[in-house]
Design goal:
single chain; mainly beta; Beta-galactosidase, Chain A, domain 5; 20 strands; globular
Length: about 350
């Protein structure tokens, strides 16, 4: 599990905990006055594949989660199976398959009382007071709430850009009347989150991996539902120790402690470039957790290493350090971070000679 805690200017915290295999533990603290950017990596080996899981922390408060696959493909004898893979070598066919990894994100946005909001951009044609009676084709926002677990399973579709899932706290309203929250955004690449064709109604998986049936699932948090699967599920396909479908019993999701289960996956149709091993170039999927109306401004503007050089008439006229004394001492708690108190560094900024 890893957790991110943030402290915006009004001292109200946001915590998002993501659960991954227990051998990886990462904790990062994000503060408005000191924003850290870390890109830790974890590697998971399963049989012939290596999965690289990366967590990215951005200066605006966003969090990225990405999965990449590499390893040796399991091929098949090339004989009358052209519909199931490319011929990639002498008598060898690359077997098409999918990779799907499930993540659990426990959201606590300004407390544990949260609601999942769906925001869609929908087309509309209507007459406006300023359109002189003429119809205008444009788009508008459609906002709805996911009220219970029966509505909490859905897929990113071809209109991903028109659909936004935002975890909000309806009791936390910003200065402009908007609910503060965090949005789940498909990342790199968006289409890779659709890997689920063979998982749906699978005769091989039974009920052991029903978390793979949709791209996103939302449930109420329960300590009795710590994970979506179990290693021994394979011993009883239709009555496994953990049946993810049983998590969805119509429970109310309005202003409660929410868990978002999301999948990172990819279709893999091996080709000659997968020999001798698969590259992570396209075997790559990700999502981002992005603050929406959470902060009053872009938090990356508060980074400690920000400077502006005013340049004119082929010389530097001023170096704006935004209130920091680069000739003074390093503030307590910022040693080794991103502060510069080196007079030589300041002199170098003034010596800037323009583009080469």
């Amino acid at each position: 599990m890893w957790a991110l805690g943030g402290m915006p200017s009004d001292s109200s915290p946001v915590t998002i905990a993501l659960h991954t295999p227990p051998s990886w533990i990462l904790a990062a603290i994000l503060e408005a006055q000191r924003i850290a950017v870390e890109i830790p990596f974890a590697s998971l080996n399963t049989s012939d594949y290596d999965y690289v899981i990366s967590y990215k922390f951005y200066m605006d408060g966003s969090i990225g989660v990405e999965a990449e696959a590499s390893g040796y493909i399991i091929a098949a004898h090339r004989a009358h199976n052209h519909d199931y893979g490319y011929g990639i070598h002498d008598h060898l066919s690359g077997s098409m398959h999918e990779h799907i990894i499930n993540f659990k994100a426990d959201f606590d946005v300004l407390g544990t009382r949260n609601t999942a909001q769906m925001v869609r951009n929908v087309p509309t044609t209507q007459v406006y007071p300023w359109s002189n009676g003429r119809l205008r084709s444009t788009m508008r926002l459609e906002r709805t709430f996911i009220t219970n677990e029966n509505q909490g399973r859905w897929n990113w579709d071809d209109s991903t850009a028109q659909k936004q899932l935002v975890i909000v706290n309806q009791d936390a309203i910003n200065a402009y009347g908007e609910t503060r929250g965090y949005q789940l955004v498909p990342g790199q690449p968006a289409a890779a989150t659709h890997a689920r064709l063979t998982a749906i109604n699978s005769t091989s998986l039974g009920r052991t991996a029903s978390w793979s049936s949709h791209d996103v699932h939302i449930t109420a948090q329960h300590d009795t539902e710590p994970r979506s699967a179990y290693p021994f599920n394979a011993h009883d396909l239709y009555n496994p120790p953990i049946d993810f479908d049983r998590f969805f019993d119509g429970e109310d999701l309005n202003q409660t402690d929410l868990v978002v289960w999301f999948n990172l996956g990819m279709y893999h149709l091996p080709h000659t470039g997968d020999l001798p091993n698969t590259l992570t170039t396209t075997a790559h999927a990700g999502v981002k957790l992005v603050p929406v109306n959470f902060f009053s401004l872009d938090q990356s503007r508060r980074t400690a290493n920000q400077v502006r050089i005013d340049y004119g008439e082929e010389k530097v006229t001023h170096v704006e350090t935004f209130g920091r004394d680069m000739n003074g001492s390093v503030p307590a708690g910022n040693a080794g971070c991103c502060w510069s108190n080196d007079q030589a560094a300041l002199a170098e900024l003034y010596d800037y000679g323009g583009p080469a």
